[in-house]
Structure formats: structure tokens, C-alpha cells
């Protein structure tokens, strides 16, 4: 704490000790500066950024593909994987594919997606309601 100094005096003190003069907050009145080793300062800032990046969770979108006439056991296996994805904090894209004449019975696909939505209601919320794109019906679930 050297108090208020002129820029020339502050630079002279910093170079006298063999360190750098670093302006911390230029908008303050008068501007605040510190005498420190600039290389060490940059290194510590980089470490802080890396630590912050390490702690953040990247949310991925996992995809589960189902069919309108899915068998019960297959459905249960798919639901287990959906639950594990949601528990890991990832979003889940449920893709229902229609083939051939199944397009004439889209209500079967809607029933399957509604069943998935009902089972996952306490764990996940529907981020994107089921919508039809060509032969695919897509719904996106996000963790609560």
C-alpha cells in the first residue's frame, strides 16, 4: 500500500524491485495498480481459467431410437438407457422411426412417445414436444 503515486514514481519503484507495474482497475479514480511479476500473474490467471473449465459440465444430447411397434422387453431396455442418460445430466433425443405402411398409423408412434413421457415425468421435462419430420417423430427430454 504505497498510496497515491504518479505513474513515473510507480514505474520507478516497480523497476527498482525488478517487477512490473500492472493496472488492476483502470476506471477507478485514481486508477489502481499493483507491483508484481507479470509472468507469474498470467500463469495464475491461466490456472484459474483451466480450473473453472474443468468444473463445468458439458451437457450432451444422447439419442435413443425406437419403433412404433416396439416389444415390451426392448422398450424396458431403452427406458433403462434413457434413465441413465438423464441421471448423468444429459439431454435425451427420442427418435421414433416409421417404415413403410407404419406412416398410416402415426397414432401408434404418438402412444409410444406419450408412454415414454409419462414414465420419465418425475425425472425429466419435455424440452421439445413430439413433432414429425419426414418419417421420424422426434422428442427431446431434459433433466429436471
From TrEMBL:
Residues 59-143 form the Translation initiation factor 3 C-terminal domain. This is Translation initiation factor IF-3. GO terms for biological process: ribosome disassembly. Its main location: cytoplasm. One of its GO terms (molecular function) is ribosome binding. NCBIfam families: infC (TIGR00168). GO terms for cellular component: cytosol; membrane. InterPro entries: T_IF-3_C_sf, T_IF-3_N_sf, Translation_initiation_fac3_CS, Translation_initiation_fac_3, Translation_initiation_fac_3_C, Translation_initiation_fac_3_N. It is found in: Cytoplasm. Monomer. IF-3 binds to the 30S ribosomal subunit and shifts the equilibrium between 70S ribosomes and their 50S and 30S subunits in favor of the free subunits, thus enhancing the availability of 30S subunits on which protein synthesis initiation begins. It comes from Acetobacter orientalis. Gene3D superfamilies: Translation initiation factor 3 (IF-3), C-terminal domain, Translation initiation factor 3 (IF-3), N-terminal domain. Belongs to the IF-3 family. Residues 2-52 form the Translation initiation factor 3 N-terminal domain. It comes from the Bacteria. The keyword Protein biosynthesis applies. Signal peptide: none annotated. Keywords: Cytoplasm, Initiation factor, Protein biosynthesis. Pfam families: IF3_C, IF3_N.
Amino acid at each position: 500500500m504505497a498510496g497515491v503515486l504518479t505513474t513515473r514514481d510507480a514505474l520507478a519503484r516497480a523497476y527498482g524491485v525488478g517487477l512490473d507495474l500492472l493496472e488492476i482497475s483502470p476506471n477507478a479514480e485514481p486508477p489502481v495498480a499493483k507491483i508484481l511479476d507479470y509472468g507469474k500473474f498470467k500463469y495464475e490467471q491461466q490456472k484459474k481459467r483451466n480450473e473453472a473449465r474443468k468444473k463445468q459440465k458439458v451437457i450432451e444430447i444422447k439419442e435413443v431410437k425406437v419403433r412404433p411397434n416396439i416389444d415390451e422387453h426392448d422398450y424396458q431396455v431403452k427406458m433403462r438407457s434413457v434413465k441413465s442418460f438423464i441421471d448423468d445430466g444429459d439431454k435425451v433425443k427420442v427418435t421414433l422411426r416409421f417404415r413403410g405402411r407404419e406412416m398410416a398409423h402415426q397414432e401408434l408412434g404418438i402412444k409410444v412417445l406419450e408412454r415414454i413421457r409419462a414414465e420419465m415425468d418425475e425425472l425429466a421435462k419435455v424440452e421439445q414436444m413430439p413433432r414429425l419430420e419426414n418419417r421420424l417423430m422426434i422428442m427431446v427430454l431434459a433433466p429436471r
